[in-house]
Structures are given as C-alpha cells and as structure tokens.
Amino acid sequence: MQRHPTQEIDAPSKTSGESAKPEIDDAGRHTIQRDRLRYSQVSGKGNTMSESSTTGRTRRLRIGVLDNDSCALEYIVAMLKQSTGSENNIADVWAYTKPAQAVQECRFGQHTDILIIDMALNGLTGAQVAAEIRRISPDTGIIGITSYTPEVYEQALADAGAQALLDKSTLRSTLIDAIAAVAEGKHYPEDSAFPDVSESTETTHSAAIHLTSAEQRIITLSMGHRTSRQIADELGISIATVFSHRRNIKRKFGVKEWHEVIAQCHALHVL
User: Fold this and answer.
1) 151 - beta bridge partners?
2) pTM of the prediction?
3) What is the edge-to-edge ordering of all strands in the sheet holding 91-96?
4) Which domains does the chain have, with CATH numbers?
5) Burial of 160 by CB count in 10 Å (0-12 exposed, 13-18 middle, 19+ buried)?
6) How crowded is residue 184: how many other Cβ atoms within 10 Å of its Cβ?
7) 3-42, pLDDT tens digit by residue?
8) Helix, strand, coil in percent for the chain, rounding step 5
9) Sign of the CA dihedral 115, 117, 123, 128?
10) Is the pLDDT of residue 70 over 90?
C-alpha cells in the first residue's frame, strides 16, 4: 500500500523509559504484551468496559491492527501504547501485516473486541477482509483506516459491517474516540452511515460471499492444483458444468480471472 504523499504521518513521541517503536517477529506480528490503554482516558465518559461483579475489575479490551505498511502499523500500535493506564484498565494489542494472519487470529485466537483495518492490502480491499471478519467473529467492532479519500471506500466498508472509517492523517484526533465508540457497540462518528456492531451482522448478508457446496468443492480442488478436467472427473460432472460454476464464482468474487479467485481464497484462508 502506498501512502498519499501529502498525508505523511508524524512519528509518535517516545515516552520515558520505553521505545515508541515495537518489534516485529518473523511471522509479521508485533511482539506486544499487555499494552495498556486506560479506558476512562479513551472514552472521556468514564469506564464503559465490562466489569466483573465479583472483583470490580474491568475486562481488558483486545485490539487488533492490520496494515501491510509496517511504518503505519508501528505508528498506530505506538499510539495505543502511549495511552497507558492502571492495572485495572488495560488493552491487549496484536498487529499483523498480512490479511490471512489477522483472519486466523480472529478465528482461532482469543476474542478480538476491535479490529483496525487498512483499506488497501496488496490485492485485497479492507472491505473484503472486514466482511470475512464479520462472518467469523460477529461481535468484533471494525474500524477502517486509509491514506486516500475515505469516501472511495465508505459504502463498501459499511456494507461489509464496519463501524467507522478514518483518514490516517487525522488518527491522532480521531482514533481514540472511534475506539471508545466502537467498544460500546456504536458506530463513529454519530452522524455517519455505518452500522452499530449489533446491526452489522444483518448488514453483511449482502456483502458476504455465499458459495454453494458445489462451488466450494470446485474452489477447494482448484486450490489443490486440479485441472478443470480432473475436477469434472472427480465430481462426476461435465467440464462445461465446471466452467459454468467458475463463471458464477468469479461473478460472486467480483473478478474476471480465475486465478484472482484462488489468490483471494489463499489470502483470506476462506476455505
């Protein structure tokens, strides 16, 4: 993803005794443990996180960040790290540069409360990733970010079930407020057309890709490097039927070439 040249992001300042630049391991994941985010400071409205009735301690907010631009990723994570708070109000932050890693984290990891997604991800759009996240994790709030004109992505992202879309050049003044709103299940800003988290599952029915069992089988076999003739023989159908299914699948994915379907499925681990 290339950032717009007129929208450079200022490097975050370092806090005393710690580096503002997180480290990235070989898997592309930031090695950040127990990054603290004081929620009363985030929301400005007091504590809105869930609270245990027995301990009185607030539940940690778990935030994910997906951006294939490692510099932007470091900036956002550092911004979250700077919002430090007490032991009772902390957030765990994970971050990845690859969509498939973020999808797998949301699918198999601990529940992610909020996912921050860049809109341009090397062949995938943020809306495509958001729709997949909404499908596998209906309660996760989603915030889109972009270096380009937000209006370009707004409708597709709203249709995918996200709660907000922020311009990267304004993150210092908007991100924390957006996190506070989305953590409460709301959209941001209040006058936007984005759905609340509770409404977004219904919203994504039109955005999610629905495949028949036959279409899923054809994609799976294609990902296993079967030819169309081999797929036809294995499924007991004609090769013309295989091509018909492939045309329908390409239409659903919004692409013209079959290899683009396979690339998207690999990138998102859809099947």
Assistant:
1) none
2) 0.61
3) 91-96, 61-66, 114-118, 141-146, 164-167
4) 39-203 (3.40.50.2300), 213-268 (1.10.10.10)
5) buried
6) 15
7) 444 333 344 444 433 333 444 444 444 433 333 344 333 4
8) 45, 10, 45
9) positive
10) yes
